[in-house]
Amino acid sequence: MVRALEEEKEHLRAKLGQFKGMFDGIRQTKSLVIETNGGPSTPNDRLSKSQATSPLPDPNDQQQEQPAPPAADIERAEPSRPPPNDAPAPQPRGPPSDLDMMKEKFAKLLLGEDMSGGGKGVSSALALSNAITNLAASAFGEQKRLEPMAPDTKARWKKEIDWLLSVTDHIVEFVPSKQKAKDGSNMEIMITRQRTDLHMNVPALKKLDGMLLDCLDNFKDQNEFYYEKGPSNNEKWWIPTPKVPPNGLSEVTRKWLQYQKDSVNQVLKAAMAINAQVLTEMEIPESYIEALPKNGRASLGDAMYKSITDDFFDPDVFLQSVDLSSEHKILDLKNKIEASVVIWERKMNAKDNKSAWGSAVSMEKREIIEDRAETILLILKHRFPGIPQSDLDINKIQYNSNVGHAILESYSRIIESLAFTVLSRIDDVMLIDSQARGGDQVTEEDSKTTLLDFMGWEPDTKKDDADADAHADTPPPIKPTTIITNKRFLDKLETLSGLKSPSSRH
C-alpha cells in the first residue's frame, strides 16, 4: 500500500516537470520574438530571456534540463546596431537642376517677392520687371572693359531670360479667323494669337540682345589695346583706363572699331524707340497726377515757361539757357517738363472748362507748347541716354499692371543701358587713340550722341558755317555712313511724337 502511494507520487512529480519545461520553452520563444521586433521588453520578458540564455536547474527534477539556444539564433535575435552618437554622414548634393531653379524663380514671382506669403507682395507685372532687371545686373554688372562675357555667365543669362520671356507666349488676344465646315460652308470664328506688340517686339529685342553679345565676342581676338590694372585717375576712377600703342591704333583697327560703334549705335536707337513707345502706352497713375500743380507755369517756372511759349522758339537756344552741368540738374529739368506736358494734355482732354484743370489758353496754343516741350524731352533723352529714369517713368513702372508692357519695358531698358555702356567703352578707346596720335582732342561732350546724329539733321549753325566757308579750299567733312540693322525700328523712331526737325516748325 505504501509502495503504491510512493509510485503514484513519483509519477505526478515527473508529469509536473514535463509541464514546467514546456512552459519555459514558450516563454523563451516569446522573449526572442519581442527582442527581434525591437518592441518594449517587460521584466518578465527579460527574466525569460535570461532563463533562456542561462537556464537554472530545477531542484525538484535533476533529470529535466532545457538546452540553451544556439549562438546563431541569439545573433539573429539581437542584431548589432550602431551607437546612437554615430549618425550617418549626409550625402553630398549636386548642383540644382534647371527644373528646380525654374520652380524657385517662378515661385518667387507668384509670391510677388513676399516670401512670408502674407499677400503683401508687389503685382505680377512689377515682379517680372524686377526679375529681369536683377538678372541683367547679376549677369552684366557694369561692363568695365571691351571683352566677351564669361561662357557660364552668358549661358545662364540666355537660359534665365528665356524663362522670364516665356510668359509672353501665354499673353494672347482674340482675332477673327475663317474656318471651313464639313458641308463646305465658310464661317468666321475667334481664335487666340499672341498680342501684337509682343509678337513684334519680343523677337526683335532678342535679336538686339544677340547683336550686343556678338559685338562683345568680337573683342576676343583684338590685341592692339589693353587695360591697366587697377583704377584710373580720371573722373571715372572705378573704370580701368585703356592703353594703345605709342603711335595709336592701326588704320584697320580704327575702321573696325568705328564699325563696331556704328553697330552698337543702331542697337541703342532701336532699344530706345521700343522703350519710349512702351512708356508712352503705359497709364499715368493717379498718385502722380494728384501731386501735380494746377498749371504748367508753376511746374516750369516763369523763365522757362516764357522761353517755351515765345513766338520764336529754338530748342538748342533753350537748352543753352538752362544749367545742364550735372546729372541731377538734367533729371530735374526733365521732371519739370514732363509734369508740364501731363498738365497740358489733361487740360486739352478735359470736357468741362469750368473744372480745376480748365484754362483760358487756346487749344492751338497749348498744342504748340506741348509739342515744343516734347521736342526738348526727346533731345534730352538722346543727348543724355544714360540719365536715370524720371519721376513719371518710375511711377508708371511701379503702378503698371500690364504684364506685357512690364516685360517689354524692362527688357528694352536693360538692352539700352548695356548698349550705352558698350558705346561709352568704345569712345574711351577712341579718345585715347586720338590723344596718342596727337590729333584733335575729342572731348567727352563731343563724343556724346545727339538727336541730330540719330536723325541725320543738319542744324542751322552748320548751314551758316558752310555759307561762310563756301570759298575755302578744304571740303567739308563727310559724315560716315551708318549701318542700318533694322529698318522697322528706325521708322518707328520717326513716328514718335516730337521727332520733326526744329527748323521745320516755323
TrEMBL record:
Residues 80-95 have a biased composition (Pro residues). Residues 462-472 have a biased composition (Basic and acidic residues). Residues 38-54 have a biased composition (Polar residues). Residues 31-100, 462-483 are annotated as: Disordered. Pfam families: PRONE. Residues 89-443 form the PRONE domain. It comes from the Eukaryota. Transmembrane segments: none annotated. One of its GO terms (molecular function) is guanyl-nucleotide exchange factor activity. Keywords: Guanine-nucleotide releasing factor. This is Rop guanine nucleotide exchange factor 12. It comes from Salvia divinorum.
